[in-house]
Amino acid sequence: MGYLRKNSFMIFLDEDAPPPAKELDPQQIAEIEAAHQEGKKERIEALILKELASTAPRDSRSPEDGNDSMLLAFADVEVALPSGPLDEENLKAMTEQAEAVKEAEARRAVKTKAEEEALKERAVGPEGQALRSIVQRVQGAGGDKAAFQDFMTNGFEKKDFRDQHLREFAWKVYEIDTSKAELPGTRYVPSRSSETTVRFRNDSTTRLGIEIRRYSKTVDGKQVAMTQTETLHSQGPALWVKVADGAWAKDGNWGGYLQITCATQEGKWIDSSAGWVTPVSSKADKVTFYDMGNYYEIWQKDRETGKPLIVQDNCLRFVHGATPGKFNLQDSTWD
Fold first, then answer.
1. Is residue 44 helix, strand or coil?
2. DSSP states of 103-147 as a string?
3. DSSP H stretches of helix in the chain
4. In angstroms, how far is the first alpha carbon of the chain from the final one?
5. 9-42: per-residue pLDDT in tens?
6. Is 209 helix (H, G, I), strand (E, B) or coil?
7. From the CB of residue 206, how many other CB atoms can be counted at a distance below 10 Å?
């Protein structure tokens, strides 16, 4: 997560960011990765069976197969029973139908088992070996995408419909082969909202902080709904900054002098007055971003000589001795 930003970025409050997950010991990691590797084998074996099933010869259906399909389809449909007691004829018909459905289910189970056994035989025969040779070639690329793409370009002799099936099969094998084990505590993704974004507050030309978007206003003592344009302008413009001077980085932590790059107060520098964060005309103190795994602590100067950044009364403030706030960043795509 922690790296020195070269371009502009936004800052947003992320109070719900979890603390870094407890590190797993090497034995736990080894067990998770071994289980994932075993799962790869099972997924590839299932993929081979699926590919063979898609190309299995289709036997012509017998009349009995058609009757069984109709019986089983009808059995899945709920039929309202007549009110009152059933006469002997209706009861006999229902009993015979239930028996016929059971027999159809039994025949379908036997046929399905026979198809599965035939599929397993094909999997260990020449057809299965041909697919396994593709698996071996894909895995032989060692996860190198360039080597895999070369195999996809030059590894197939035929250029027909069947060849396309094999290419799709190879892609699926590559996706399985290059998948990584998911380790606990590595899935947190910061999420920014308009209410958590650091911005120039509408109630001050010099204060920076967060601001709730408003949807109503008071007119003649009554609350009325704002227009969409009014709602969008109920918050001040978002703050964009960049490290413009004194940049440094070490062990995921980094910092330097922050300069404003958005139209509002563009070119000014970030500093503070009585701790309150504000734009100033010339650079004064560096700002340090400490990588906490799932979020950043932001400090004026550094931990040894400076103060942590917090949100106080919805405004940014550097406060000596305070518990550091949790912040995250969103990089620009325009500079």
1. helix
2. HHHHHHHHHHHHHHHHHHHHHHSHHHHHHHHHHHHHHHTTT-HHH
3. 26-54, 63-75, 88-124, 126-140, 145-154, 161-177, 228-232
4. 20
5. 999 999 999 887 677 777 887 788 888 988 988 9
6. strand
7. 13
- The answer to whether 151 touches 170, Cβ cutoff 8 Å, is yes
State the Cα–Cα distance between residues 156 and 163, nearest whole angstrom: 7
Pair 164, 158: CB distance under 8 Å: no
Look up residue 14 and give its two tokens: 């992320």
Map residue 212 onto helix, strand or coil.
coil
Do 328 and 10 meet the contact criterion of CB atoms below 8 Å apart? no
Neighbour-count burial of 307, counting CB atoms closer than 10 A to its CB (0-12 exposed, 13-18 middle, 19+ buried): buried
Whether the model pTM is above 0.85: no
Evaluate whether 260 touches 241 at the Cβ level (below 8 Å).
yes
Q: Which of 186, 110, 173, 181 is nearest to 136 (CA)?
A: 173
Phi, psi of 225, deg, nearest 5: -70, 140
What is the Cα–Cα distance from 120 to 122, expressed in whole angstroms?
5
